[in-house]
Design goal:
185 residues; 3 strands; 54% helix; globular
Amino acid sequence: MKLILEQWRHFINENYKAAHTHEEIVSAVDRALQILELSNNKNLRIFMIEIAVTESGFNSKGLSSSYDSHVENPFQLMGPAINSTQTTWKLKTLRRRVEKNAKMTNPWSSQTVQEIRSNAVMGAIAATMYIIHRSQPRASVSEGETTDLNVPDTISGRAKLWDDYYNTRTDEAGTVQTYITKNTV
């Protein structure tokens, strides 16, 4: 029975096109946090990697024991979420950090949604800025400040944070339990 389930998962996963390895996503998160000057927040790093696994992780061999690949736009951000990272006043310090540390030719606010979605590092930057924006509705990040985003150190706490501030209500499969299950294989 287990072999049949694994073969079925492999058949289903043939429809997914692996755009990124899991290692590439981990590197993208690390680079994004470095650019945003948030590398010291270890729980944020874990959280951003778990978001990518939850949103787009799959096993290219159809196995359910691990995730080795991610689809294009691994953080599954839509246009309005990306646009909010480009325009909201409270993220202006983080946008300046992006422009300074990533040595971008064009400012963050000029990047297209497609450019951000197709680049794993830019997607990780946008996802990080978005979760900070959504979970801190009245606070802005000041110059020299890392962030007061208090990411829980338990998977159930991070799953709740994801469910409350990142996942959309139209995603019926996106539950706290799904988050926990996908990140504990």
